[in-house]
Amino acid sequence: MINNDIEIAVQKVPEDQLKTKPDQNNLGFGNFFTDHMFSMHWNRQQGWHEAKIHPFQQLQLDPAAMVLHYGQAIFEGLKAYRTKDNRILLFRPQDNFARMNKSAIRMCMPRFPAERVLQALRALIYLDKEWVPHAKGATLYIRPTMIATEPMLGLRAAEEYQFFIINCPVGAYYSEGFNPTKIYIEDEYIRAVPGGVGDAKTAGNYAASLKAQIGAQKKGYTQVLWLDAKQRKYIEEVGTSNIFFVIDNVLITPPLKGSILPGITRDSVLQLAEDWGMQVEERRISIDEIVKACEDGSLQESFGTGTAAVIAPVGEFCYREKEFTINGGNTGPVAQKLYNELQAIQFGEQEDNHGWVVPVS
Ligand SMILES: *Cc1c(COP(=O)(O)O)cnc(C)c1O
């Protein structure tokens, strides 16, 4: 069923119908889409079929399409980076596709031929290569997605799916500087439960997080820090990023125990810190430990990690109406060094010793 030889057709937009490209210095995030997309379909009889790169277009979906009712939808997020000498690089794309296949298994969706889809992605980006921004720090954000398309009401796993990849040029995340964010520690709503779907990148997780996110924003915070569902005691993630702390020069992050999304940036950060000889721990961290470390001054830094921002330093926490400032509200040296090194690898300016970078052509 996982056919790595699947034929990929290419249907190009006629030259005179290509879109006008947006202003590279005003891209924002997720606003513009390139000329082409990739898509393929799955059903039980044919497996994956009708794979093609074609003009960016609306989906045709029956109102009874099962994704709209029962939520079988998974996605990924990765980026393409333009180097100074005009090559285009992907960062750990195989890991994104492997994670997406894990999400597929969790959501009872079919696995897809990851190697072949990576080839299709490279061809798609090459075709739309003028869309990979030249502006400093700007990138092409890539959104692979899979949804249940079978038109049927009645709860079971669907028997028809569509997979697609759409790409959008996005601006530098820190166009106004690498500024620490204010984080609200959420002790009412939760993101994920053990045994649930927190470790899958599935659409419903994000819908479920909005209520807390809006509440935190109303109170003046940028993001929510999630605690565990059972005891509201152990730290899980921050917004849609993994979370790290530096306490007494040790880099600490919660372990992957099923309710946390296994971030690729998280994994890269752990690897780089180990390379530097820094002590690294993946272990449970209680909110009480963090409060205590804030109070006795042993908490040196905290930051989120994810594809969009790479590293997002935390300047302040609010827990039960009390505010805690971290590192005087400034970006710390570990966050800064990780950010610099990861960006340098991603933009091809520093040697990649881990085989993370994959050229588009
Ligand atoms: C995508 C995501 C992350 C970060 O993963 P990366 O692979 O580093 O981009 C972390 N937490 C959640 C909930 C996510 O959806």
General description of the model:
There is one protein chain. The protein has 361 residues and is of the alpha+beta class. The protein folds into two domains: 163 residues, 2-Layer Sandwich (D-amino Acid Aminotransferase, Chain A, domain 1); 166 residues, D-amino Acid Aminotransferase, Chain A, domain 2. It is 23% helix and 30% strand. The strands form two sheets. Strands 1, 2, 3, 4, 5, 6, 7, 8 and 18 form a nine-stranded mixed beta sheet that branches. Strands 9-10-11-12-15-16 form a six-stranded mixed barrel, surrounded by four helices. Helix 2 packs across helix 3.
H/E topology pattern: EEEHEEEHHEEEHEEEEHEHEEEHE
Which geometry do the CA atoms define?
A: globular
Radius of gyration: 21 Å
Strand content: 25-35%
Low-confidence stretches: none
CATH H-tier superfamily of the largest domain: D-amino Acid Aminotransferase, subunit A, domain 2
Q: Let me know the number of strands.
A: 18
Helix amount, in percent? 10-25%
Brief description of this entry?
This protein has helices spanning 67-70, 93-106, 114-127, 203-218, 264-275, 287-295, 333-346, and strands at residues 8-10, 36-43, 47-55, 73-75, 78-82, 88-91, 139-148, 160-170, 181-186, 223-227, 235-238, 241-247, 250-253, 279-282, 299-306, 310-319, 322-325, 357-359. By secondary structure, it is an alpha+beta fold. Strands 1, 2, 3, 4, 5, 6, 7, 8 and 18 form a 9-stranded mixed sheet that branches.
